[in-house]
Amino acid sequence: MTTMRLGQWDDEPTPPHTFPDFAWISENQQELVAQYGEGFVLVYEKQVLGFGATLQEAMANAERNLPPGDGEIIPVVDTIHRPYAISSVRRSTRIPLDSSTNAE
Amino acid sequence: MTRVSLVVHPDPGHAETFLRFRQKNGTRVHVKAVIDTGSHATLLPATWEHELDIRNPRRVTLERAGVPGLEFEATEATIMVRVEDKEGNSTAPFEITIWFAGTIETLTGFDGLLNRAILHLDMPNLSGYLEFPD
Which of A46, A68, B126, B132 has its CA 20 to 30 A from that of B5? Predict the structure, then answer.
């Protein structure tokens, strides 16, 4: 039975499918969003194993959809979403209320 | 110097890098992140907070840059990261500030990461790199 885990141990090389799978997700982002919506995908050798609103949901979904065999696989995880016009995030610049403000 | 190649996309224009984090179970996982020179720190979806080996988590308030009123809560923490590329180049691990928020965006920001790197972005040739001093 095939088993799955995310990530490699320190002494393991990066699996050869890792970066091609990331590239495949980028190249097919629009189609994947159209099919699944926005969220997390687990992909192994250009096949979607699982999708979910959270990483944990996508992993649970993938566990039910593993390829046949006896080995252990390490899929990549990525998010799929529509392009955002605004991404930059910073600490809030809101001036906190203090005692002098409250006294007015 | 360690030079790590970026993945550059033309439409919509953006550049990505690969961050490698240690998980709580001891394994290391790759996360693809958009280079964002407008973000103070690196941002990941909140779901990663439960998986990654973070230190000193605390609650903070963030906002979308330049959009008044778009504030949201996040967890801020510190974490060790390596920056890698598909050619096998990798930095040594170093510590950064990281935010976990209710988003599915992953952004590479300044605090601890971009502020230690030279960013080269060549959009006409769809190439770029981050260069880290040793």
Answer: A46
